[in-house]
Amino acid sequence: MSDDRNRTLFGRNARGPADEAQADGGMTEDNVVHMDTVVARSPREALEPQDIVPPVKRSARARGGMVRFFNFLMTLALFGAITFVGIIWYGKTEFEAPGPLAESTTFTVPKGATFASIVPGLEAKNIIKKQGPLRVFTRGVRAAGQGSALKAGEFAFTPGMSMRAVMQQLTEGRAIEYSITFPEGWTSFRIMERIAANEELEGDVPPIPPEGTLLPNTYNFQRGDTRESIVSKLKEGQKKALREIWHSRAPDLPLRSQEELVILASIIEKETGVASERRHVASVFVNRLRKGMRLQTDPTVIYGIWGGRGKPKDRGGLRRSELDKKTPYNTYQINGLPPGPIANPGIESLRAAANPLETDDLFFVADGTGGHVFAKTLKEHNANVSNWRAIERQRKKEAEAKAKELADGVTAPATQDN
Description:
By secondary structure, the protein is mainly α. The protein is built from 16 helices and six strands. About 50% of the residues lie in helices and about 5% in strands.
């Protein structure tokens, strides 16, 4: 391709060196020398780079330093990885290995405690090994996703339990439960005495609740529960039971309120300990209320004199002076029900008061077997009372004879042959 064609194709920029030299004022010796070094190129060659700068070669010393540094990093990373895997393996092995506990024991987790806060206690009881810098137990708990699953309460631990088993016991196991029983017919004073004496419960003893507001029963609790919480259970139990029983009461009862139902139930509770008699005893009191007769029941006299503390244990039966003593609770002296319950009745006495038997009986007295004999008329009742007095005299006579026998040494020691 000629120079003219190159000019036609590429315009001014395609002119040769000679043209440029002429345009600059003619051709000089220098220009001639320069033109001798110029090689004509095709359009494609014109677009390609003319000079390629070769890479700078690093010295062997520089290359050696970089390699050594890279190898150091790789070695360090490999060592770190091996160490990490080793620690994980060691921690897992320790977490699942048998523990140091030699004898069964218990441990109490306070409310609001964390795994980290109970570690010293677990170590002190030898339930887990002493925790070094690795803190295997707490790290294992976190790795298992149980860090926030710690339960409060008292837990039992058996010999040789692993740290994993200890964790599972504290997060999935059931805390040890205790029970406390309040007999039916106990006064609020006696119930609070038992609550105060219980060593597994914590906290102050609440004020004595009003009589009849607690439901005697057996209640479960965990070590560390408060005494207030037990009282709350007793109150809630009574409210729930009374509400249900009141709604299912017999029609036309001579009781105007739930409180009067509790008062009558407390008298029934104190009069008989025989479950099958409760509704029969209830019928006697309901019949007397309907007829306007005084209830004339000894437990009300006792409560009127001694209150919730009860009659002293060394006292015998009621004296005539005590039966004649006027108190707000003495049903020999007042009409109708006393002003409040004389005890905390159980659920069966509440049911008996709400649904008494249908009878015509107006009297009852002890029969000598732990139960009672019932009567419709005063004449029948007096005969039953005479029988009871005879039983009492016979028992007294037998007791005196036995006491005399022991005092006189009638039962002599065995003699020895010489």
